[in-house]
Design a protein that fits this description.
This protein is of the alpha/beta class. The protein is built from 5 helices and 6 strands. The protein has a 6-stranded mixed sheet, sandwiched between helices. One of its GO terms (cellular component) is mitochondrial outer membrane.
Length: 226
């Protein structure tokens, strides 16, 4: 979210209380809690599926999701919610992970669906979507970033722990934007299936990346990057 000072109408200043009232209004707009964002890439899926509904998780993909769910549960954190892409592979990954986190609510959204966020720099020869796809997907993925990746609301009293299950392109773009790096560099990162990326957003708006594409909890023979 924006700086507290940007949320206040500075013209509405009481002549009698002056700076004292301004400080009080600023405190009312300041975040107090830290947000922990866990970005999970979906597990391995059937690449031969022609439609999204056919691109279901493979047996190995289901194993990966089990391992990711077990890892998240082992952290001993009180997760607030799981927000996931509405695509089949992300939804199935979420269903398996959620078995290890009973009681945590699940929310589906189209904003986190896979896509082409922005033309990568440097360009790559093996992946060249139509230019119009960048305009359509890019606006949606940027909207996902603005909607989900921000400092805590001023009303939030305790630190929160949230899980987002989505896709490699979306996660890589979000990481670049959150760290204020050039977003065109998103394709320079590589993420394994079922991997965990951990962003921390402090009350002052500072962002730290604690983990990027972690799959250290998986046996080597279970790791893929499809």
């Amino acid at each position: 979210r924006r700086e507290p000072l940007a949320l206040i109408n500075l013209k509405k200043k009481n002549d009698e209380t002056g700076e004292e009232e301004l400080a009080s209004r600023l405190d009312h707009c300041k975040a107090k809690a830290t947000r922990h964002i866990f970005l999970i890439r979906h597990s391995q899926y059937n690449l031969d599926g022609r439609a999204d509904k056919d691109r279901t998780l493979t047996p190995l993909g289901r194993e990966q999701a089990e391992l990711t769910g077990h890892r998240l549960a082992s952290l001993g954190l009180k997760f607030d919610q799981i927000i996931h892409s509405s695509m089949t592979r992300a939804t199935e990954t979420t269903e398996i992970i959620s078995k290890y986190l009973p009681g945590v609510k699940k929310i589906s959204t189209d904003l986190l669906r896979e896509g082409a966020p922005i033309e990568p720099d440097p360009p790559v020869s093996h992946w060249k979507p139509e230019a119009v796809q960048y305009y359509e997907d890019g606006a949606r993925i940027e909207a996902a970033f603005r909607n989900f990746i921000h400092r805590a609301d001023a009303k939030q009293e305790e630190d929160s722990y949230e899980i987002f299950v989505c896709h490699a392109n979306v996660i890589r773009y979000i990481v670049c934007r959150a760290l204020q790096f050039p977003p065109e560099g998103w394709l320079r990162m590589s993420l394994n299936n079922g991997s965990i990326t951990h962003l921390v957003i402090r009350p002052n708006g500072r962002v730290a990346l604690r983990a990027l594409g972690d799959t250290g909890f998986m046996p080597p023979d279970k790791i893929t990057r499809t």
